[in-house]
UniProtKB/TrEMBL annotation, chain B:
Keyword rRNA-binding: no
GO cellular component terms attached to this protein's record: glutamyl-tRNA(Gln) amidotransferase complex
Catalytic residue list: K79, S153, S177
Name of this chain's protein: Glutamyl-tRNA(Gln) amidotransferase subunit A
Enzyme nomenclature, EC number: 6.3.5.7
Organism: Rubrobacter tropicus
Annotated family: Belongs to the amidase family. GatA subfamily.
GO biological process terms held by the UniProt record: translation
Subunit record text: Heterotrimer of A, B and C subunits.
Amino acid sequence: MQTQQRRTYQAVIGLEFHVHLATRTKMFCGCRVTYGEPPNTHTCPVCLGHPGALPVANERAIELGVMAGLALNCDVSERAVFARKNYFYPDLPKGYQISQFDEPICLGGHLDVPFGDETIRVGITRLHLEEDAAKNVHVGTSGRMHGSVGSLVDFNRGGTPLMEIVTEPDIPSPEAARATANHLKDILRAIGVSEADMEKGQLRCDANVSIRNPDGSFGTKTELKNMNSFRFVEKGIAAELQRQEEILAGGGRVEQTTLHYDPETDEVHELRSKEFAHDYRYFPEPDLLPLELSASYVGEIGERMPELPDAMRARFVERYGLSPYEAGVMVSDRELAAFYEEVASEADPKQASNWISGDFRALLNESGTGVSDSKVTPGHMVELIGLVGSGKVSRSAARTVLDVVFKTGERPSEVVEREGLGSVEADELDGVVDGVISSNPDEAERVRNGDKKVVGFLMGQVMKATRGNADGGRARELLLRKLGS
Amino acid sequence: MADLLSLTAHELSGKLDAGEVSVREAAEAANRRVEEVDGDLNSFVTTTPELALERAGRVDGLLRNGGVRPWEGVPIAVKDVLSTRGVRTTCGSKILEEFTPLYDASALKNFGDAPVMVGKANMDEFAMGSSTENSAYGPTKNPWDLNRVPGGSSGGSAAAVAAGEGWWALGTDTGGSVRQPAALCGIVGLKPTYGRVSRYGLISFGSSLDCIGPMTRDVRDSALLLQAIAGHDPRDSTSANVEVPDYLAGLDAGVEGLRVGVVTELMDERIDAGVREVVSKVAAGLEAAGAEVGEVSLPHAYYALEAYYIIAPAEVSSNLARFDGVRYGLRVQADGVHEMYRKTREAGFGAEAKRRIMLGTYALSSGYYDAYYAQAQKVRTKIVEDFRDAYARYDVLVSPTSPSVAFEIGAKTDDPLAMYLQDICAVPASLAGVPAISIPGGLADGLPVGVQLMGDHFTEPMLLRAARAAEQAAGFEFAPRP
């Protein structure tokens, strides 16, 4: 119903992402980037803004910024300038944030977002580098400054490298916004620029939301701050669109404000009016020289870039004959994709996909293990697929084998040997089938009369008798032949 | 010991090396001198007599084993804007009265653990001023005349050297703060090429202009002290990765064939006649020594001051934002964070600091940025072009360092613009980032007059050679005063 209503208006949505870069050290000093360490244990005169301390730009962060820019089809600037964004806040030790303003590291670009059966092209306005602020902790309240008995500052986060990515207002719906955020995460992870985990705050998203007027002109836009999960990106924007629609439907005017989405109540709340917006007094940071990003520097980074998810997905479909969906599952996890490619080089690619995206991934997820930490090697997987393919192990027995290999790291053939999981030989199976038919005469009769549903029951008996080691296909074939149906 | 006090730093260094004098004896002599005269002069915010002795003992130990660099044992005064580990660093401000840095400025690293430091020299608050009257710790007096200012902002450093409270000093120069006080106190002051000396640990005033420079008894001492502090520093992105030459080599090679241009715009009626006379005499001396002397124009020289007083305050307004009472230094308790900021900064900063914060905030604010800050940067580019054109024809430019000799304490405190004019000769080189040195050229009305020589980027060896010749032409003899 809501969706219907929304279609009478046209939503105009642009997103701003703050991404924590996967560097070992901070943006302008050598302090380690950490999460969850005791407060103020990773600080130095530079990130504490002590008098006389000076920033030195993190080369790796610049490289990651360029990589992200290339992945998003941006123009990497030949010259980028750090600027000071001046404002007072206790979590900002220098009284300014070093950011980029009119000469960012990347301009223009786009992102092709898979969305249902189609692809939405979302323009990228700019991409720039900056440092994160520290973290204020207000004591004696639920984290709000108002009414707190005291405020503490943890500077561990202060100076952490951030990348800001601003999209064009090209996004047509809350669902598309979520898909955009998701796809951006996949790309950033794939190229190793960021873990981009929203729950850990490594990827933060603000949205600029407006509704286009019936005459086609742009409506007033509001800014929705700090949505910290993909679901909340969608729900927050939907809530804000609904709020704006209701205002317009009531003949009111949308005010330009900054809002916060509260997932508990599924409502947006005003943070501050734009008329109180800061004058940041940007000017070029005199402590840092302009970055000069030569074509050869950018070219070298381009050559070292890992394959992007879109390209990899297309290649998997092409080379291994996977469906786009199957390929997508593999590509969303870079390690899984690499694992798959190793297996697919020596085993049937389709079987490899089934095993890896199905059983193997389920085991990883259940145990919270990463591909590289798992005891299952590509070699194990090739062997297992070979055992099934040659009929030495039934599919269901092979699942049991994989469970054991996952736990112990033994070779699949050893497991089969030790646990007696090898397929039942043809002669033996013949006898078992005969036995099942004779001890279940009623059911056998019903199959003879064409009731195929009962075949499943008889199959179950065969499996029971063989402790699951029978080749299901062959057993079924035998049953049907013997019962003449 | 009076003999010891009248030696230059390199002479003392020679005696230390030869074992004729110990570093401890030198430090004791400097400490005694500080005790004797600093009650009148107020050259120091903080004196460190025990630290000087302790470090002197250490250098004496090293000297016995050889391998001590020639500057290490010579007692020094350090401007209180340079961070010194374990020694409070106030910047002449109340807001940092209790502040003790955790690290030493990079410029001090070449002194082994740290220099034999007699104290932290007084200065205009956050290096903003031309008279050292803006210090929260009281004004410094000119050793030539205790009723007069020593110049600023490195007035404490200049007075300390002129009075023999140490053989040399480190100052900082943003728009003339090494050269002008050197001129007013009758010593040598060198502002190196921007980026030649690391700014790490120099508490920023105008980041794009700040330079640390030697303040010494003669040009050779300047070369020696520059040798100690120059070099690339990975902690300072603006420090140049250019090899440090031997500044003492060829110092006495003379100026035969050197092309010297006297800057016409800085020799007009805005400069006191007595000052112009001394500059002309020194220029004539250089000509007599074999230099080709002519006239050169820096057409935008007078706009330099106006551009400077936009750019430097703009950077100050941002650089001083960190003094907010949150992490270190003064905090005035109040209800709420904004009240705390306001009261802390109200109580912590003096009038000149506040004036420049306001000027800079205005110049950077939206709607005024283009009219002021952006415009000033364009002027800066013009000045850079002026210098480039001038260096196409001349190796060294000559001008007065300051438009007048030392003025009386209080004479200009009510007129900030008159005070700002003190920097008119010094500021162009600052905006262009080129090296410039002031040498004592003679006296006018019984007070020292500084002659400024300017070179192109990283031509310090040539500049020092010309300054050495100018010094000889002037024939000015150093003696501790009062």
